[in-house]
Description:
Helices cover 57% and strands 11% of the residues. The protein is an alpha/beta fold and 592 residues long. 38% of the residues are buried.
Amino acid sequence: MARPRGSRFALGVLAAAVATASGVGLLSLAAWLIATAATHPSVAALSVAVVLTRALGVTRGVARYLERLITHDAALRTLADARVRVYDRLAHIEPIRRFRSGDLVTRLVSDTDATQDLLVRGLAPPLAALLTGAGVVALGTALLVPGGLLLAAGLLLGGLAVPVAAAALGQATGRRQAAARGELSAALVDALHGAPDLVAYGAMDRAVARVERADATLTAAARRDAGLLGLGAAGSALVAGLTLWGTLLLGVAAVESGSLGPVPLAVLALTALAAFEIVAPLPAAAARLGAIRASGARLFDVLDTPPAVRDPGGGLESAGGPLTPGPLRVRDLRVRYGPGEPWALDGLGLDVAPGARVAVVGPSGSGKSTLAAVLFRFRDPDSGTVTLGGTDLSSVSPDVARQAISGVPQDPHLFDSTVRENLRLARPEATDAQLWDVLERVRLAVDVAAMPAGLATDVGVHGARFSGGMRQRLALARALLTDARLLVLDEPTTHLDPDTRDAVLDDLLAAAGDRAVLLVTHDLDRLTEMDAVYVVVDGRVVQHGTHAGLLARDGWYRRAHRLPAPAAWSGGFTAIPQRGTGAGGTLSAGLQ
């Protein structure tokens, strides 16, 4: 992901190397200047060194600023691309449902930000240390060969051995810290969102204890991480100190033997001291590699989640505009949620003519909501076809399909914003007049107008300030703004009392107008208003017909209405169970 900005990072590494080399050169030149000044030379002999000292000081500051500017700019641009990729991936609905909400937020925020450390602290400092370290070792070797070799050994220990050890020790700690951060976020979000139920059932103490345990785990992992950073810094300081002492001992011995002068000894000693500025950041960066790797793995778990909806590419313009209106035909539709999972839909087929009202009923778990998910393009079929006006929906972009098929999912989401903004999700350019018109069509205009802020009324988190019926009506109004010719209503009256349910269903059907409606429901009331009813059991259509026709023949639909099966001619009397006769009660049905 950072490769497109490789030239920027290379320039940042060069600036870091210049800054580090300027720092080492500044201290080495200062050592030469002070040691030479002690011999009382002429001022002219020192003027060049004074000018160079000032130049190195300015160069160090400018180069360090440029290094920070360039590397952070490249890193932040790379992170921006990463976030775009993550958000683009999450624009498909299915990955959101595969992760806990709190953990997913941590992946998007903390884990994404953690990768910045890899680009800023894990890339430029090691490469800059490699470039500058080679120059410092060359200078030390030119002054005193044994001193240069000892300096090389010290830099290898401080810049390679200590960081490698820190990285090895920090790998497990980093994984635990990333996982603990996600668990804490998930536990906290669960406790906050589920607070009313937790309080009602006396389970809040257990939820708080879970948050405290997650926090304690994260705190312990952070302590281990801090201790590891301290050990890395201590190891680097120990190597630097031992290297400096060894260099001084070799230098003093060389001065006593006459092979090294006092001024070069000062230069060698302070160069050795300054050289470890090169490798000082490396142990801390290496210790963080475990956490960075774990965060990266969690981030790419989201990016690598295989899509449940294939996008052939292209939007409305590339597709030549919206789909041509026409009948919806589902043929031999098969869907399952995993290779080893049972079929949620197993050869299902149905038809919805333009302007028709069709209901899909069946027991819980029969595949009704899976059918709605396929029509909403939340899932692709494993086999079979879904066509609208003769066009296979899987052959067009999901955005194109959703322009033609809209509706209300089983659990429509209202954002913590205003009524106006919740409606404009479907049509951002809609005027207030259009919004009032669609609210009137779902019989919600009077309620919204009675609110002090009108369209600017805040609906609350998940629409908590609205009743269940009002939320359903608002979701339908949003669907009507799309101008879709087919409305899929997935359990639109769930959890509503009978009076509210009837009112909402009346409004739904009336507001639909001449649009086709596919009603997915487990509620068997009001199906007399449907043109056709499909009964789905175990992912298959087991019955199909009108309400009256299905009641007239034996099957799931008649049994679900608790009506006796039509008795066949038996040559006598047949005892048939009757509703309201009690357990095992029968009434004589008479001659059949």
